[in-house]
Amino acid sequence: MAALTPGDARGLIPAAFAARMASGMPAAAAWVEALPGLVADVLRRWHLEPDGDPLTGYTALVLPVRDADGVLRAVKFSFVEDDNVGEIPTMKLWGGRGAAELVRADPRRGVLLLEWLGEPLEEWWDADEATRAVAALYRDLHRPAAPQLPDGHALVRGWLRDLERLGRRAPAPPRFVEWALRAGRELTAAPGSHVIHGDLHYLNVLRRGDGWAAIDPKGYNADPCLEVVPLLWNRWEDLEASGDVGEAIRDRFYAVVDTAGLDERRARDWVVVRCMINVAWQAEPGAPAGAGLDSAQEWLTRNITLASAMQAIEVADPL
Fold first, then answer.
1. Is 263 in contact with 152 (CB distance < 8 Å)?
2. What is the per-residue pLDDT for 99?
3. CA distances from 197 to 24, 86, 119, 232, 260 (A)
4. Rounded to 5 degrees, what are φ and ψ at 194?
5. pLDDT tens digits, residue range 143-190?
6. Contact 221, 196 (CB under 8 A)
7. Is this model's pTM higher than 0.90 or not?
8. Which domains does the chain have, with CATH numbers?
9. What is the distance between the alpha carbons of residues 280 and 277, in angstroms, rounded to a whole number?
10. Which terminus of the chain is more exposed, N or C, with fewer CB under 10 A?
11. Are 203 and 120 in contact, with CB atoms under 8 Å apart?
12. CA Rg, the chain, in Å?
């Protein structure tokens, strides 16, 4: 196959993805402008041939490719930010255990060559079984803190300062904001104790043979109980179908905590902390909604509903 030119590679980048990145912060706009040249260079240097439709995340492009041996792989081009700078070192640490195998990487340019996996757990029909499948991955992924990874608790403290500055202007009940600030200070007082994924939910877990493997980690050191909340704000339609969203949220929460053996109090408080951080982010002008939603108000409501559901989780006072 003849080497792709940057002009050829531009055709591999979905126009909607390129337009969204170009309309963001200047660094993102510069990255997507340079992306065709990066794609062409990596495919040439790594002897990869495109083989399928491109996929996009919020800040990443993934191309199905064949390597020099004809093996189907996924090559990922990530826009590197403060909260995902640990992606490649985390994948290296995991070494394919509980996660996709990292075949090759270019950390400076945010490029990963990964094993090709199957369908996402998002498509698994049984939501409770899917939840427990993700929680079961924690034992492989949550390793002792690694010095080469950023401290996730430092990131959270910065986000909490943004929430504190909003104060009563935050678009959430003040009691939840106060709960998040109080609990967040306690939870982040010490550096993170374990390697965590940071965004582990059903779309970031793919089929591998008879099991499952994680992809797309943020990758930092933090409290393992921080990992719970993305499982709660995704597959929301399953919670709504239950007829009692609050009770369904708590059932899912307990499924994660019980399967992974997490501290119930810390997990509960982390849910409120993360949800109020989301609220603070959403208060920024032009901020996109989370969880793939189009409506900022729907995203705010979802986070407030999650925090509200945590009020009914009673835990014993520590001895």
1. no
2. 98
3. 25, 10, 19, 15, 14
4. -140, 155
5. 999 999 999 999 999 999 999 999 989 999 999 999 999 999 999 999
6. yes
7. yes
8. 6-115 (3.30.200.20), 121-310 (3.90.1200)
9. 5
10. C
11. yes
12. 20
CA dist 276 and 266 (Å) reads 15
The mean per-residue pLDDT over the stretch 76-89 comes to 94
Q: What is the mean pLDDT of the chain?
A: 95
Structure token pair of residue 18: 């390129």
- What gap in Å lies between CA 266 and CA 192, rounded to an integer? 13
Q: Residue 1: pLDDT band by 50, 70, 90 thresholds?
A: low
The pair phi, psi for residue 234, each rounded to 5°, is -105, 165
The number of C-alpha atoms within 13 Å of 169 and in the hemisphere containing its C-beta is 10
CA 127/CA 133 separation, integer angstroms = 10
Per the listing, tokens 């490649």 go with 88
Confidence of residue 319 (pLDDT cuts 50, 70, 90): very low
Give 233-245 pLDDT, tens digit per residue: 999 999 999 999 9
Q: Residue 2 — very low, low, confident or very high, per pLDDT cuts 50/70/90?
A: low
Note the pLDDT of residue 307.
Answer: 98
Amino acid at 299: W
Q: Degrees (nearest 5) of the Cα angle 317, 249, 140?
A: 80
Q: Quick one: what percent of the chain has pLDDT higher than 70?
A: 98
